[in-house]
Design a protein that fits this description.
Distance between the termini of chain B: 65 Å
Strand order of the largest sheet of chain B: 3-2-11-6-7
Strand content of chain A: under 5%
Number of domains of chain B: 2
CATH topology of the largest domain in chain B: Sulfite Oxidase, Chain A, domain 2
Helix content of chain A: over 70%
Distance between the termini of chain A: 21 Å
Number of helices of chain A: 10
Radius of gyration of chain A: 19 Å
CATH architecture of chain A: Up-down Bundle
CATH class of chain A: Mainly Alpha
Strand order of the largest sheet of chain A: 1-3
Order of helices and strands of chain A: HEHHHHHEHHHHE
Largest sheet of chain A: 2 strands, antiparallel
Order of helices and strands of chain B: HEHEEHEEHEEHEEEEH
Strand content of chain B: 25-35%
CATH superfamily of chain A: Transmembrane di-heme cytochromes, Chain C
Largest sheet of chain B: 5 strands, mixed
Radius of gyration of chain B: 23 Å
Structural class of chain A: mainly alpha
Oligomer: heterodimer
CATH topology of chain A: Fumarate Reductase Cytochrome B subunit
Structural class of chain B: alpha+beta
Number of domains of chain A: 1
CATH architecture of the largest domain in chain B: Alpha-Beta Complex
CATH class of the largest domain in chain B: Alpha Beta
């Protein structure tokens, strides 16, 4: 009984329903984008999957859809806006965390989570803009198309690494995974 | 919200915003100057990627073939089972086996392969039979104006005008990079149209049909240019081959 009371006292509401819905919609879009990207870019996979025209269209549609849930959350969800503010700000403990990987820090997010969020937030407009230039290259100066392809390719490789890292980290941190699955956690 | 996290939300350095803005700036610079960086990287890395046995360097966005196909899986055919059909508006339609094709006078050509999506492979050695020789062997009728190519993937087609098809640098290829053309690269026999973007170089070639007018191929129907001159079509400015 004591343990249970303690547990419920230490449980904290980490993410609202809207935030969790946003996270899983985003994850699904990102996974489809990475899978279709791999089928378009990695030679042996292209060879197995084929259907280049169809794969390209799925990739383009998911890419264009990606900012919509985020925009909706920024407009309608106060908890999302509050978390975005927390993720934005780096305090002294964040610099300390980066130097020494202390696991217990005050606050909701550690510096790694903040950097992950910042990278993803930065990558989305870059991927969207370069993707649009690649798909509808007509109005743009010619070398932009090559440049956009180059940026899109390199950023995709970086995103792939960061997202795989994010998933590996999440799977090895049960309480924080619970926070994103159920909204609540006993980690403060 | 605890006092601590309230404070956390309002003070501290806005690193997140800086990362986002910084990435936007680097991305914009990459769009403007990326084509030059890519050329430079391609040339610098060429000696390394050429000798990379792992294939990992093909993941870099520079200087290697990427394998595209429009159907579900790569078609497969042994040279022993291969036939090339030449028909349409010709006097003597015929079918060749792989051995009969390779017994014809061969032409070697070392030239770049430029894809319309941006990648280019420098100085690829190709060996094959001039398309013109095959057309002459069949005897093209007077009113013929186009040539259509069909892949044994069952879906892909390409086409050239008769003038384009009769160029010296249009080959029906059976050796590439000093090896028989692999399945990935469209083996046992593919087309190589040197002066045009890669989509013209029909892989897994099985049928050449002479037509009365140019019939748009798979990608042309989907918006690519029919006259796919490298550097002068599809809104691109690559160096001609």
């Amino acid at each position: 009984m004591v343990a249970k009371t303690l547990r419920s006292e230490s449980e904290a509401e980490r993410f609202s329903g809207g935030e969790r819905a946003l996270h899983w919609v985003n994850s699904t879009l990102f996974i489809v984008l990475l899978l279709t990207a791999s089928a378009l870019y990695v030679g042996p996979l292209s060879a197995i999957v084929g259907r280049r025209d169809l794969v390209k269209w799925i990739h383009v549609i998911c890419g264009l859809a990606l900012p919509l849930p985020l925009a909706l959350a920024a407009w309608r969800s106060a908890p999302f806006r509050a978390d975005a503010r927390r993720l934005n700000r780096f305090g002294p403990e964040d610099w300390k965390w980066l130097r020494r990987r202390r696991t217990n820090i005050p606050g909701k997010f550690n510096a790694g989570q903040k950097l992950n969020a910042a990278f993803i937030a930065g990558a989305i407009p870059v991927m969207l803009a370069t993707g649009v230039i690649m798909k509808w290259f007509g109005p743009f100066p010619l070398p932009w198309r090559t440049g956009a392809t180059f940026v899109h390719d390199l950023m995709a490789i970086a995103l792939f690494i960061v997202i795989v890292g994010h998933i590996v980290k999440a799977l090895s941190d049960k309480p924080r995974l619970d926070a994103m699955l159920r909204g609540r956690t006993d980690v403060r | 919200m605890s006092a601590e996290s309230l404070q956390e939300a309002e003070v501290g350095t806005p690193i997140g915003r800086r990362v986002v803005l910084g990435m936007a700036a680097v991305g914009a610079a990459g769009v403007l100057f990326g084509s030059r960086v890519q050329d430079w990287l391609g040339n610098t890395l060429a000696p390394i990627t050429a000798r990379d046995g792992t294939g990992l360097s093909s993941l870099l966005p520079v200087g290697r073939f990427r394998i595209y196909s429009v159907t579900g899986s790569l078609p497969s055919k042994l040279a022993a089972d291969y036939h090339l059909q030449v028909d349409g508006l010709v006097d003597k339609p015929f079918t060749l086996t792989f051995d009969e094709l390779t017994a014809m006078p061969a032409t070697g050509l070392t030239a770049d392969f430029q894809c319309v999506t941006g990648w280019r492979v420098h100085e690829v050695p190709w060996v094959g039979v001039k398309l013109r020789d095959l057309l002459d062997r069949a005897g093209v009728k007077h009113r013929a104006a186009g040539v259509t190519f069909q892949s044994f993937d069952g879906l892909y087609t390409e086409s050239l005008s008769m003038d384009q098809a009769r160029r010296d640098d249009v080959l029906v290829v059976y050796r590439m990079e000093r090896k028989p053309v692999s399945r990935n690269h469209g083996g046992p026999v593919r087309l190589y149209v040197a002066p045009m973007y890669g989509y013209k170089s029909c892989k897994w070639l099985e049928r050449i049909t002479v037509t009365s007018k140019v019939v748009p191929g798979y990608w042309e129907v989907r918006g690519y240019d029919q006259d796919a001159w490298i550097g002068k079509s599809n809104g691109r400015e690559d160096a001609p081959v």
